[in-house]
Specification:
2 strands, Protein Binding, DinI Protein, Chain A, two-stranded parallel ribbon, 7 helices, 4% strand
Length: 197
């Protein structure tokens, strides 16, 4: 939604500038464009790139995916251990349930319910841990991508670059304005080059 608002604002601004210039001079639209050029005004330039393609080509992606897979595997091991412990307790209850008094059965059932809640809490906590690991591993790549996109936008003179991979944004864009290859080229530059820019 934020991107769509930016596009609309940029297009509206361009329209206002062109309309104001043309009406102020009482000239036809072509004369207005010439006046804009003389005044140093130019239409808003918008282009697109695809962050999915960029992320897929980043060398640190495979390392981040490996670390995330390891975090997920460790979470699964912890979860299975908690589930096994609960199953063992249920099996133990089944063995001795017939010999227990009503009060003992209620106490054991309450204990099992408490352990079941603990397993549910463990699932939620492990899910949060994996999500945190994902964000932590992805963050450096996102920062590099932002820097590369900014550098390409400034170098190529665009006012707005839109990500084709953004959720909720449907775009039909000409391949001629797709700057994904330029973003990839910027990312592949040696780090020393980026520092000296």
């Amino acid at each position: 939604m934020y991107i769509v608002r930016n596009i609309l604002a940029a297009l509206l601004l361009s329209l206002v500038v062109l309309t104001t210039s043309a009406s102020a001079q009482g000239a036809p639209p072509s004369a207005g464009k010439q006046a804009d050029a003389r005044a140093g005004l130019r239409p808003t330039r918008i282009a697109v790139f695809d962050s999915r393609v960029v992320f897929d080509s980043m060398p640190e992606r495979s390392r981040a995916e490996s670390e995330l897979a390891l975090a997920q595997a460790q979470a699964r091991v912890k979860l299975e251990a908690a589930k096994d412990s609960l199953r063992a307790a249920v099996d133990e209850l089944a063995k001795f349930e017939q010999t227990m008094s009503m009060r003992e059965r209620e106490a054991v059932t309450l204990n099992l319910r408490a352990r079941e809640l603990l397993v549910e809490e463990t699932v939620a906590r492990l899910d949060q841990d994996v999500q945190r690991a994902y964000v932590t591993l992805r963050q450096p790549m996102v920062e590099r991508l932002r820097a590369a996109v900014r550098a390409v936008r400034e170098k190529e003179g665009y006012d707005l670059l839109l990500d084709l991979a953004s959720e909720g944004l449907m775009l039909e864009a000409s391949p001629s304005i797709n700057l994904t290859s330029l973003v990839l080229r910027e990312l592949r530059k040696p780090v020393a080059d980026a520092r000296h820019r």
